[in-house]
């Protein structure tokens, strides 16, 4: 299907626009001796101190140094082990947090960053530029007094294992840290501060991205003791850790967050990627009258269950011969936005991040796959179950293509970003009972990558290489109600 290649090309073009380096360069503008960010101006006189942390830090630093040049006095960045670092940069890079877990190297690097930020105040009118991206929570590790790194890791794991949601987890993380929850920005006072943020979390909550080191939020400063109590583990936590948490919470509670602490700006996110993708589709497919429509950037849940919902949506569209709002209400809270789609050809866009539910009893030892490949395989499985029951006329009146793609180019521990599925994959499936059975078996055993690698010699796998972008996932559903 020619449109498959064209849609993948549109996705790649949209992805380039949220490249970390390009996103930083778009956010910063220098003219007449001033730095402009959004609608605010900052005086420049070789007074910029650059601090970066996260997986996208090298590219973000590269973008910042290109724009600010000689105005950067110095820079420091905390990045993961074995990451590619561009040559010729002024900024010093420190590596740590192997396997995306806090370690002693990350602790030492964070101490250096704390000192760096504190020293920025040694002269008047200084400007600290923070570059924040996913993975920063592990890289920026500074346990409070009385708590060791092992204590911190063990308590966070205990909180996770007892059903804490991301907000509860962040409260405990913030309470255990000197720098999270605005602690790093506190060290930067009275310097002016700008924080450019790449969001890797659904909904773009600034206080959760890398645990919000440059933003103070009441959400982050809830009482951690109350959370431990609510989770039923307060009496299982050592008294000395409870006392340390209580003391830290009382101290931080006195910190009055000023709105001038730091200008926090999200420069790349799933929402921005979806907007770029919609624009690319408009430009590429204008002559074909294909209309893009963004449904949500908050798609979450189990990948297998979401695949089933996409299969249901595709089947309903075929049976009805059109797509109306009620059919996608299951994916979107804002069901009043549009009642019906006028175009015979529409690309429905979704964004967010799903999860894979791993059942050790069903998964095999060679299990390999990712949430995007699993979602499309699940849709394949559920469509295969009903395909032979659909009248030939029904199937011929709607052409579809479903894509699920990770923006970072790596879906799970594989070399694929995701997978796609079209009508052509289902034709003749009723005669191929072995394939239908294999789909279900490999879906249950968490071997989606093995299936897609073997199926059609891997032609349905989407391989774009590691992109350096991490703004979660995108699903594209093309529905063509015209004849093939």
TrEMBL record:
Sequence ranges assigned to domain MOFRL-associated in this UniProt record: 7-245
Domain spans labelled MOFRL: 346-473
Entry superkingdom: Eukaryota
InterPro entries tied to this protein: GK-like_C_sf, GK_N_sf, MOFRL, MOFRL_assoc_dom, MOFRL_protein
Pfam families registered for this protein in UniProt: DUF4147 (PF13660), MOFRL (PF05161)
Entry's family note: Belongs to the glycerate kinase type-2 family.
Protein name: Glycerate kinase
Species name: Heterodera trifolii
């Amino acid at each position: 299907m020619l449109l498959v290649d064209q849609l993948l090309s549109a996705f790649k073009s949209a992805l380039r626009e949220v490249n970390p380096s390009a996103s930083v360069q778009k956010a910063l503008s220098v003219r007449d001796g001033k730095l402009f960010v959004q609608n605010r101006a900052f005086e420049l006189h070789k007074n910029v101190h650059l601090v970066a942390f996260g997986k996208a830090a090298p590219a973000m630093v590269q973008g910042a140094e290109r724009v600010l040049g000689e105005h950067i006095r110095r820079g420091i960045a905390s990045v993961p082990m074995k990451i590619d670092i561009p040559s010729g940069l002024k900024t010093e890079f420190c590596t740590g947090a192997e396997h995306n877990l806090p370690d002693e190297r990350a602790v030492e690097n964070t101490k250096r960053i704390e000192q760096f930020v504190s020293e920025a105040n040694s002269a008047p009118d200084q400007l600290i530029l923070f570059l924040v991206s996913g993975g920063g929570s592990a890289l920026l590790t500074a346990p409070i007094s009385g708590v060791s790194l092992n204590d911190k890791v063990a308590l966070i794991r205990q909180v996770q294992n007892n059903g804490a949601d991301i907000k509860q987890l962040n409260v405990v993380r913030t309470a255990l840290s000197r720098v999270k929850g605005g602690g790093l920005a506190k060290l930067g006072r009275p310097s002016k501060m700008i924080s450019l943020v790449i969001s890797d979390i659904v909904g773009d909550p600034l206080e959760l991205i890398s645990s919000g080191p440059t933003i103070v939020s009441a959400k982050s400063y809830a009482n951690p003791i109350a959370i431990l109590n609510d989770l039923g583990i307060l009496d299982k936590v050592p008294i000395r850790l409870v006392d340390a948490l209580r003391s830290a919470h009382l101290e931080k509670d006195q910190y009055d967050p000023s709105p001038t602490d730091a200008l926090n700006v999200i420069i790349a996110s799933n929402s921005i990627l979806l907007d770029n993708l919609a624009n690319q589709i408009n430009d590429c497919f204008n002559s074909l009258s294909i209309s893009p429509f963004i449904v949500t950037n908050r798609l979450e849940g189990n990948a297998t269950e979401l695949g089933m919902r996409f299969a249901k949506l595709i089947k309903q569209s075929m049976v009805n011969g059109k797509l109306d709002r009620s059919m996608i209400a299951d994916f979107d809270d804002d069901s009043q936005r549009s009642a019906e789609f006028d175009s015979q050809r529409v690309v429905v866009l979704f964004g967010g991040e799903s999860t894979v539910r791993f059942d050790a009893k069903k998964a095999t030892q060679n299990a390999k796959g990712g949430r995007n490949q699993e979602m499309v395989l699940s849709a394949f499985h559920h469509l295969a179950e009903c395909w032979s029951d659909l009248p030939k006329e029904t199937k011929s009146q709607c052409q579809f293509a479903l894509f699920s793609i990770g923006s970072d180019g790596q879906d799970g521990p594989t070399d694929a970003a995701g997978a796609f599925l079209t009508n052509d994959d289902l034709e003749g499936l009723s005669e191929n009972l072995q394939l239908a059975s294999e789909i279900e078996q490999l879906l249950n055993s968490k071997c989606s990558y093995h299936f897609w690698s073997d199926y059609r010699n891997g032609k349905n796998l989407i391989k774009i290489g590691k992109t350096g972008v991490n703004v979660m996932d995108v699903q594209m559903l093309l529905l063509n109600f015209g004849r093939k």
